[in-house]
Amino acid sequence: MIFSLILLFLSLILIQISKTIKKNVKDIKKRHKIQTGKITYSDLNKPAKPFFSRRYKIAGKPDYIIKKNNTYIPVELKNSRQNQPQKNHIYQLAAYCQLLEENYGDFVPYGVLVYNNTHQYKIPFDPKIRFDLETTLKKMRGLLNNKKVKRNHNEPNKCINCSMKNYCYDKLI
Questions:
Q1: Helix 87-104 with 127-146: angle, nearest 10 deg
Q2: Residues 6+ positions from 44 with CB-CB distance below 8 Å
Q3: What b/e readout covers 96-114, taking b as 16+ CB neighbours within 10 angstroms?
Q4: Are 51 and 87 in contact (CB under 8 A)?
Q5: Element (DSSP H or E) covering residue 165
């Protein structure tokens, strides 16, 4: 009888813990403007495994991946002075869409950009952005092969950790 009461008590505790975790996940999704669906991947709490593309020879880790209606959707969170989608952010998200398609073998219709946890944008992974992504990757590879990378900013702090500083002929430091 005592054993049964202990098991009942432990079951009630586990049910309460489960409810608390579910509420915390719901709050996190709401706070970060994450779409409804199941989070199947996250690179925010601890480093996650990157995705690789053999076709484009790129790698990346979206902040989240949501599975909604058997479709994988990459979500990228941005803290920025801007609250509108930036071209470089759109290409980054497009690269994540491409990576998910190659790694999961499923069509990815769009990705989501979230700015400052307040503004959310659904960015279609349509034929135009696919073409633009491929064109941009080819152009970047050409610049790297010719060692003709030009700086696109006027901020010395960006040069410090830039992955292109070995190729850039116009760096500030």
A1: 100
A2: 63, 64, 77
A3: bbbbbbbeeeeebebbbbb
A4: no
A5: none
* Neighbouring residues of 98: CB distance < 8 A, sequence distance ≥ 6: 53, 56, 58, 108, 125, 130, 133
Share of residues in the chain with pLDDT > 70 (%) = 98
Query: What gap in Å lies between CA 45 and CA 28, rounded to an integer?
Result: 12
Which residues fall within 8 angstroms of residue 46, CB to CB, at 6 or more apart? none
Put simply, whether the predicted model's pTM sits higher than 0.90 gets the answer: no
Is residue 75 pLDDT above 90, yes or no? yes
Mean pLDDT of 146-169: 79
One DSSP character per residue, 47-109 reads --PPEEETTTTEEE--SEEEEETTEEEEEEEE--S--S--HHHHHHHHHHHHHHHHHH-S---
Nearest 10 degrees: Cα torsion 123, 125, 129, 131: 170
Q: In whole angstroms, how large is the CA radius of gyration of the chain?
A: 21
Q: What is the pLDDT of residue 32?
A: 63
The residue with tokens 């779409």 is: 35
